[in-house]
Design a protein that fits this description.
The structure is a homodimer of 229-residue chains.
Chain A: H1 3-10, H2 20-28, E1 31-35, E2 40-42, E3 50-56, E4 59-65, E5 68-75, E6 79-81, H3 83-88, E7 95-98, E8 102-108, H4 109-118, H5 120-146, H6 149-163, E9 169-171, H7 176-183, H8 187-196, E10 202-205, E11 208-211, H9 214-221, H10 224-228
Antiparallel strand pairs in A: 1-8, 2-7, 3-6, 3-8, 4-5, 4-7, 9-11, 10-11
Helix pairs in contact in A: 4-5, 6-9, 7-8
The structure holds a DNA duplex (30 and 30 nucleotides).
Chain lengths: 229, 229
DNA sequence: CGCAAAATTGAACCCAATCAATGTTCGTGG
DNA sequence: CCACGAACATTGATTGGGTTCAATTTTGCG
């Protein structure tokens, strides 16, 4: 790893405050690696070898059963994944693949566990990340069990608009197939739900979605949990 | 708190290895309190005041939206809840109510955060708990998105059988209404799914469920993720 | 430019929710 | 201890959201 990259990595929230000695230990055995698009990085059921940290690009966590497949989370920089598996030293519950060309920092599991045990700042950062992700999943479960497909889509659009600067015009960060899988519906249904949102001031052309009247859309989205979140 | 209770609490996984000074600090401001059945302990949207630890009894975490309600998790001793909210110092995403008379240890949020910052053993225990719960939620999401109602029920029955000693005869730990809400279906549908499981060697009388042929049931349950879990 | 994957649209089907009615369980007070 | 009422549980009939299957159009990429 070059020293410029080293500084970049040390500045990440996960490593900020970590003692230099410990940080050196963390990255001494680490790899900073580039992967092309659509590459499977890990498979569910495997034992964790490395903690993965997304430096650049986009990663999809998904799971399969029988002949089905679903997207659990979609991650962007700077985020770890399979942190829980590394901490507990248990098999992955999800698989991961790149959605774009992606740069990933891989730290061997034993190193992570060692430094975690002796560096308080790192431990706190790990907990913070875990707690954040836990809350994200709680929101997902609430969304799935309490809202219809159209409502989930509406919520996602409002969320994405917020992330992209609340301009009322958003760009899909990934394909509609992936979005459908993430929202828990078929691609066909996502299509239908999108046209149904016309009644709520939403229009979609290609990868661009425009919200004409945000309040109208919020009416549908039943924003209760997002207000609190 | 009596000294016998104190010792009991100190022996909990969450506090094992915590320095005596720090443990004293944790419980000095804590309450050990008994609640009757069906009492709401916390409401989603509130700011966390205490970390809750279930010493005895059973607690349901649930969430509401519009006029709907759903069960997210059902917890038994010895488990914490709203740990993520306490760690991040953000509002609760779920509400909690007792399902049975319950004894709960309540530690003020600031104390938890202080001790967490200076006691490595406690920090590790917190992370362990968080990671465990995170993985539980991942399983929930997979279950919801990949399996039908009948399959989820089958999985739940097999899971419960395992927890109760794999005797092939299990006792419902809570009402069918609650179970239905937890599994993400209506009480009517749970009833129908239970009768449908007759074809898979499952019979139900009152609160008792008997599995005649476990392998037959596993066929339906599509156990993939549980084998790995 | 041309092909393959993705996206859309329509039609039929199915799982699950809702509405409605009856039977059962259980806690409570007489 | 029994009787009663209210909540819970079951069963049937109907409705609806969502999936599946199938065909067509569009997009994106080599």
């Amino acid at each position: 790893m070059h020293s410029s990259e080293r500084n970049l990595v040390h500045a990440l929230p996960l490593f900020r405050g970590v003692k230099d000695v410990h940080f050196d230990q963390l990255i001494s055995g680490a790899f900073l690696q580039r992967f092309p698009q659509h590459v499977v990085l890990i498979n569910e059921g495997q034992q964790p070898d490395f903690l993965h940290i997304i430096i650049d690009g986009m990663v999809e966590l998904f799971a399969t059963a029988a002949n089905r497949e679903t997207t659990i989370e979609i991650l962007r920089p700077v985020t770890t994944f399979i942190l829980a598996a590394v901490i507990r030293d248990e098999v992955y519950l999800k698989s991961a693949r790149t959605l774009t060309p992606t740069q990933i920092l891989m730290i061997p599991t034993p190193t992570v566990r060692e430094v975690f045990a002796k560096d308080a700042a790192f431990a706190r950062a790990v907990v913070d990340e875990l707690a954040l992700r836990y809350r994200g999943l709680v929101r997902t479960v609430k969304e799935l069990k309490l809202h219809s497909g159209a409502e989930r889509l509406a919520n996602w659009i409002l969320d994405m608009d917020r992330q992209q600067g609340e301009t009322g015009s958003i760009e899909l960060p990934y394909g509609k197939r992936t979005l459908a899988s993430f929202l828990g519906m078929t691609p066909e249904n996502l299509s239908r739900n999108l046209t149904a949102l016309t009644d709520y001031s939403v229009t979609c052309h290609g990868r661009r979605i425009v919200i004409a009247d945000r309040e109208k859309l919020q009416l549908l989205a039943q924003q209760k949990d997002l207000i609190y979140g």
